[in-house]
Design a protein that fits this description.
Radius of gyration: 18 Å
Order of helices and strands: EEEEEEEHEEEEHEEEHEEE
Number of strands: 17
Shape: globular
Strand content: 25-35%
Helix content: 10-25%
Number of helices: 3
Length: about 260
């Protein structure tokens, strides 16, 4: 029996996730509010009126800035209040709805990452203000997808490595406690039901250097893509799914193949 253990959205690319007890998945959309915001590098041009997919290298992200993992952030999607803590100490607590506070947070990351003045990042948003629907997500692939991770696969990998690996490294939207490790790869091309929603699994998730960052220590302490390749002959862990029927998904729901 495949049971949903955790549902997580990442409101701001590269920062902390927010766990949800339930969420309504919209057809052909990402998980609501997931990667809605990002910090674009200074040389990146992003037009929110005509958003296009840009690779993760265009934004502040763990793949290059492992120091981001040392920040514990809370973001309220309704009020756009962002709180940041370092070692339990509050270092930022502002509402990102006005230009002054947006400049403050951009300067904060410039200083935190020791960037030059000309490298100051820009906060960008993938939202359409008129309808409040997510028009664009700053995800790692151009498709509007939900990422799913099987905890049994993590456990199998841990046995091979001889050490624990936090699922947080993989920043998935849905964690499942599966029947068998790696069975999710057999779902490629198939439909699955979760709660009242229907999704189609369409692709494996190829892992990159972002997973090398320990979410607790903010250090690159192991080359996970290399270890996955060494033990399994590929770089994949987890799968991507497209929502083909809208519906409510909750923790403890079953995931069942159709």
């Amino acid at each position: 029996m495949n049971i949903i253990e955790q549902i997580t959205k990442y409101p701001i690319k590269g920062l902390s996730g927010q766990n949800l007890e339930s969420v309504f998945l919209e057809k052909n959309q990402v998980l609501p509010g997931d990667r809605e915001f990002a910090f674009a590098r200074s040389n990146v041009k992003f037009n929110p009126e005509e958003p296009v997919y840009l690779k993760k290298s265009n934004f502040l992200a763990l793949v290059k800035e492992e120091k981001l993992a040392s920040l514990k952030t809370e973001f309220n999607s309704s009020t756009q209040q962002l709180k940041i803590k370092i070692d339990g100490k509050n270092v930022f607590n502002e509402n990102l709805t006005n230009e002054e506070n947006i400049r403050k947070i951009e300067c904060f990351f410039q200083k935190f990452l020791n960037l030059r003045n000309e490298e100051k990042p820009t906060l960008v948003r993938g939202i359409e203000e008129k309808t409040s629907l997510l028009k664009h997500s700053f995800s790692d692939l151009p498709d509007k997808a939900i990422s799913i991770l099987n905890l049994k696969s993590i456990q199998d990998f841990e046995i091979k490595l001889g050490r624990q690996i936090s699922p947080l490294r993989f920043r998935a939207n849905i964690l499942i406690n599966g029947n068998q490790p790696w069975e999710e790869f057999n779902w490629i091309g198939k439909k699955v039901t979760i709660g009242t929603s229907v999704l189609k699994i369409f692709k494996r998730t190829q892992r990159c250097a972002a997973t090398n960052v320990n979410p607790e220590s903010a250090e690159r302490d192991i080359n996970l893509p290399k270890e996955i390749k060494n033990h399994y002959g590929h770089f994949d862990l987890g799968v991507y799914a497209q929502v083909i029927k809208s519906g409510l998904v909750s923790v403890n729901n079953r995931l069942e193949t159709m």
